[in-house]
Amino acid sequence: MISEYKIGNDSVKVVTGNGIFSDLSHKDPGIFFIVSSNLLRLYTEKFKKINATKIFAVEDGESSKSLHYYQNVIGELASKNFERNNTIAYVGGGTVGDLAGFISSTYKRGVNLIAIPTTILSMVDSSLGGKNGLNFNGIKNLIGTFKNPSEVIIDTSFISGNKKMLQEALGEIVKHGLMLDNSINELLLSNDASSIWNDKQIEKLIMLNVDAKMSVCEKDPFETMGIRNVLNFGHTVGHAIEAVSLNRISHGYAVMLGMRIESEIARNLGYTEYNPLEIIDDITGKYEINMPSIDAKMLEESEKYIMNDKKISSGILRIPVPIEPGKHRIIDIKTDEFIKEMRKAGERLCS
């Protein structure tokens, strides 16, 4: 399946299928691959056709989104006389994609990028929209650029039957369903942890999410118009929880917790009467997710991260909330009021 999108001046082609990664090695002999080291170990056969000197392996996890790794890869490219008309391709999840995207946007002022996301989370979220970030001084994505891949290759052979991977992605998937396209959550609720792995179902789920996210990014290519704000539902609290837990609570679970808390805040302050918690709970039950718990101490520690949230302006925090299935609104809350209500909501929902 091939879909095409226009983000600013960039054309982005999204290709989905089973086993299509093997076709890439014949495309361009000048491709330099930045690859998750874990994938190199797991899928030795898939990488055999690629010249080993064109592969740079990075460890999975937030530690790879660092200036240290950035400098190492830039040094490798320079030593190989990598040219501006060549292509960088990354193979891995969101952290590898962030690093590769940042490198491709800055090396020689920009080279072509191909994204090969290998986790469901990266397929439905981080590989799309062109945002790339490095972490600095413990703050997630403090340094960043915009760089859209010319092509996103979604090879479902990397994800086949991986229940944990789907669970990790459900935070972002449910968010898209609540805020943009209710058919996403309807598809989840009409299946379960076993039936969703039918090839047609999982590909349909992925592409519904791709369409939902790209419909927003096409209208707001550089996140300057406020339209992309809808994609931040659950992320103000979620990113803070992620940071406080030192990534013990992964992004998808943190976003799920964040959506629960932010929904409760919005309802408690009278911004919406809609309560999405039943849908969230039904889906977490169907897909056998054991939600991590957080306590008052973690919420208190998360406040310093919330105070650094990029959505704050003049002491006002702008967050999106669902108002009915598949629809949303943006609300403005004083930061101190948000933190006060977060503590209350956390006590009710997450302890």
**Helical region count?**
13
Order the strands across the largest sheet as they lie in space: 1-2-9-6-5-3-4
- First-to-last CA distance: 44 Å
Largest pleated sheet: 7 strands, mixed
CATH architecture classification of the largest domain:
3-Layer(aba) Sandwich
Could you say which structural class the secondary elements and strand pairing correspond to? alpha/beta
- Name the helix and strand elements from N-terminus to C-terminus, one letter apiece: EEEHHEHEHEHEEEHHHHHHHEEEH
Mean pLDDT: 91
Please provide the count of β strands: 12
Please bin the fraction of helical residues. 40-55%
Number of domains: 2
Within the CATH hierarchy, at the fold level, what is the topology of the largest domain? Answer: Rossmann fold
Output the CATH class name of the largest domain.
Alpha Beta
Strand content: 15-25%
Question: Low-confidence segments, ≥5 residues, pLDDT <50?
Answer: none
Shape, please?
globular
Rg, rounded, reads 20 Å
Please describe what this structure looks like.
Strand 5 (87-92), helix 4 (94-106) and strand 6 form a beta-alpha-beta unit. It contains 13 helices and 12 strands. Helices cover 44% and strands 21% of the residues. It is globular and about 60 Å long. The model has no long low-confidence stretch (mean pLDDT 91). The strands form 3 sheets. The chain has a 7-stranded mixed β-sheet with strand order 1-2-9-6-5-3-4. The protein has a 3-stranded antiparallel β-sheet with strand order 10-11-12. Strands 7-8 form a two-stranded antiparallel ribbon. It is of the alpha/beta class. 42% of the residues are buried.
